[in-house]
Amino acid sequence: MVNGTVSIFKFVGTISLGLLTGVSASLSTIALPALLTLPTASDARTTLTYTSSKTRLITSYLRHITTFSLFSAYLLSPRRWRHPYLLYTSILTFISGYGVDNYMTFVTGSNIQRANLDLEAQGDDVNGEQVRTVVQIVRTTEKYRAIIVGLGFAMNVVGLWGDGALFVR
């Protein structure tokens, strides 16, 4: 029974990690650059605020599901089948959220949520350069996030393949 539960946790964690990688990668390469092509700064600001809030919610759920699933699979695995890739990928997933946000706050000196609120408070008289700056910060943040969770996803797929190779014997 425990082995089946561990397999389910691994499956759920892998799928969630893949979705998280896809969301971050597509946001940084497709959605955010498209915001800079909108005709007015007000439209770009409104779309950025909406996209940021929805993305933050979705990625938060995916990060928590992934971290919980993979860490639980690590803890529930029998001692001789307890592979560290489960622990490493759950740590990378956790770091992709809070670690990247704190790093970007340290590097840029501004918090993304606070910058979005500042833009929203300006109303219709929003400055296009301020919107561009915030979009670039969010885009860079999502690039780092995509790289970290992409590494975790690759590590997880290789680890699962190794698990399958071990069970064939």
From TrEMBL:
Keywords: Membrane, Transmembrane, Transmembrane helix. GO terms for cellular component: mitochondrial outer membrane. It is found in: Membrane. This is Uncharacterized protein. PANTHER family: AUTOPHAGY-RELATED PROTEIN 33-RELATED (PTHR37278:SF1). It is a multi-pass membrane protein. Belongs to the ATG33 family. It comes from Massarina eburnea CBS 473.64. The chain crosses the membrane at residues 12-38, 58-76, 83-100, 146-168. InterPro entries: ATG33. GO terms for biological process: autophagy of mitochondrion; macroautophagy. Its main location: membrane.
